[in-house]
Design goal:
The protein is an alpha+beta fold. The protein folds into three domains: 12-102, no CATH class; 192-248; 254-402, Immunoglobulin-like (Sandwich). Helices cover 46% and strands 15% of the residues. The chain has 13 helices and eleven strands. The chain has helices at 3-27, 31-34, 56-63, 67-83, 87-100, 105-118, 131-144, 149-161, 167-178, 185-197, 201-221, 226-248, 363-369; strands spanning 257-258, 262-269, 272-278, 286-293, 314-317, 323-326, 329-335, 349-356, 376-377, 382-383, 391-399. Strand 10 (382-383) and strand 11 (391-399) form a beta hairpin. Helix 6 runs parallel beside helix 8 (149-161). The longest helix is centred in the N-terminal third of the chain and has 25 residues, at 3-27. The N and C termini lie far apart (75 Å).
Amino acid sequence: MKRSTRITLIIIALALVPAIVKLQATIDPQRAQFQPGKGVSSVVTQVGNNPVVLPSQFVAGTIIGFREVVAGLLWVRANDFFHSGNYEAIVPLTRTITWLDPHQIEVYRTGAWHLAYNFVDSSARADYRYLAPAIKFLEEGVDNNPGVSDVEFDLGYVLYSLKAQDFDKALYWISRAAEEKDAMYPMKRQIAHHYERAGRIDDAVRQWERCVEEGRAAFRKNPQDFKAEDHFLVSKRNLDMMLIRRVMRADLSKRRIDAGFEAHVKRLGPRIFQISGTANLPDGAKIDLMLLDADYREPDMESFTWQVDPNVTAVADIGIHGIYVENGRFERKYDLSKDVKQYPFKKDRYVLTLTFNPRTAADYIQDGIGWSGEGLADQRYLDTPTPGLRKLRKVIYLDRKDIL
């Protein structure tokens, strides 16, 4: 190609760039909302509340309408960070990807998972401060991808149920996910499980009955539909078990067990303490622990940011991570001396709360105390925060000198 021809083609290509940009904006009216912000540099940095900017080599692609291509390349890079365990690099990268392409479902799901589960201390304890950003990130994913069940389900099950232990909100989002056109059978079964977790036993039974009929009808229509057959069999087994348990647990309130609950905290050294106590509960019961700043408030986030307050302390061992009860006693040592960044302890006062919640207990434990603690009693620490729910709960107030 002659030099003059090449120069002419380059000039023509450059002249077409404004037209391409204008055309792309017309094709995608939402482009302005997700395009890179001002101040794009050659490195990934934080720019105010606009969390990251793109490397310069990607800028041209985003301007001329290849946002999805750039987002895909960045997701490949994020996968490399995951396999190397560099989780802190993944979160801003997922923010960039969803900023470029808000329809990257797996990026929203994975980014929220990293926030809620993979920022951990030296004992692999997740940083509770990142739970609110994880929830807000998935809420953004729902808003940008209406009608997609996976994002709604993760918000309900992975975050509100497993991490936050808020079963009413979990039930809302799981039920919403199960109504979507792309919903899978297990989502509908999780509605029944979460009615149970929320203490709504009759609703749980009715949901299992609906699942049984749905699976039976689909399998009769197509005997090769093995997913429908599995849905029917699993639902029928769970329904039968729940009906049996409802009879077995009917009179627990007339023969309540005195839990004899007690708990103590002992300082062993700077940022090192031991929690111990008694609980007349079956082996395997879990005691939830929350140690928070006395003035702690759950963040009310208007929009997503992965930045958390570095002055806040929040230690959480709840659900499956709770303190194990064995032979009527429980004990756990906490050594937070290596985790000053995650647990700064900069406030003067703290609240340590130790709780046993029957709704999160295993079936064999509930067989003795009921779904909502109907068969549970305690002379000092019985807590009834909502009608029908009987918890064990002790609150201990600590000064900074009690910990440091």
